[in-house]
Amino acid sequence: MRNAIYISGKGTRLKNLFEINSPIFKEIVLIISDSNESIYLKDFASNYEIEFISFVSIQETGVALEFSNFMLNKFQEKKIDYCYCFGMKILKGELIEEYQNRIINFHPSILPMFPGLKSIDQALQASNTILLGNTAHFINKGVDSGPIILQSIVPKSYFYEKGYEGILNLQKEMLEFIHSSLLIGAIIFKDKTVYISNSSSNTSLFFNKL
Question: Model-level pTM?
Answer without folding.
Answer: 0.91
